[in-house]
Design brief:
The chain has helices at 2-6, 8-21, 23-48, 63-81, 85-90, 92-119, 126-151, 155-169, 171-186, 190-214, 222-230. With 231 residues, it is mainly α. The chain has one domain. α6 packs antiparallel against α7 (126-151) and α8 (155-169) packs antiparallel against α10.
Length: 231
């Protein structure tokens, strides 16, 4: 009797774990895409609408905007899928392909972000320009260091740098809340808008560091790291 009841149980568990395992990437994709798509639609409307002297940013879907939207969208979707442990185990080859595409998309988003920061320099405060420049450069740096770590088979370092990169990539999503609530409290001055934008990236990076440091040490595989160093 115990044998018959124990056999179906292992068959049921993976289904539950698989369903729960997809909640995190699905939530990250939804959280990250909402502000990206909303901003893209707003810029499309700006591009279609007739130009007016009161249009603050003076442009719709320019080339750097298109590149940034495409890069950020692909990075958010493919990057979120990397957080599914079941996805990595069941499809390791697709995990590697998606990871490489996510890296290219992140570099595209970072490069176009730097382009956008200079292109819209006259429309925003110098402090916000600095924050945007630092965010784009930081995203590129984290991606490069993460790619270098995986080439050296340093998996914990790779994971840490990619978490930081993804946190920066989700900055626009968090800024929906920091700007939405912050502007109601502190007003809409140039300084407050710049600081509230910076707060979005700062909050995400703080959460990323907390996640990295609370990761159980058992996930670290010294043997894999040593093999990568010898290679």
């Amino acid at each position: 009797m115990s044998l018959t009841t124990s056999q179906p149980t292992p068959g049921v568990r993976p289904v539950r774990k698989r369903g729960v395992g997809w909640l995190l990437p699905a939530g990250l994709i939804t959280f990250g895409l909402v502000p990206i798509l909303a901003n893209a639609l707003r810029r499309v409307a700006m591009a279609v609408a007739p130009a007016t002297p009161s249009s603050g940013e003076g442009g719709g879907m320019s080339l750097p905007v298109i590149l940034h939207v495409v890069g950020a969208t692909v990075f958010v979707v493919l990057g979120a899928l990397q957080f599914s442990a079941g996805f990595r185990r069941r499809r390791p080859s697709w995990h590697r392909i998606a990871g490489r595409l996510a890296i290219l998309a992140a570099l595209l988003a970072a490069g176009s972000g730097i382009w956008l920061a200079f292109a819209t320099l006259a429309d925003y405060s110098p402090l916000l320009f600095v924050f945007r420049l630092l965010a784009a450069a930081g995203l590129a740096l984290c991606i490069i260091l993460g790619f270098r770590a995986i080439r050296q088979r340093r998996l914990p370092r790779h994971r840490a740098w990619m978490i930081r990169a993804f946190a920066i990539g989700l900055g626009a999503a968090t800024q929906v809340f920091t700007l939405g609530f912050g502007e109601g409290i502190f007003g809409e001055s140039e300084l407050s808008i710049a600081l509230l934008n910076g707060a979005g990236w700062a909050i995400n990076l703080a959460v990323a560091e907390w996640i990295i440091r609370r990761t159980p040490r058992r996930v670290v595989r010294p043997a894999a790291d040593q093999t990568g160093v010898r290679a």
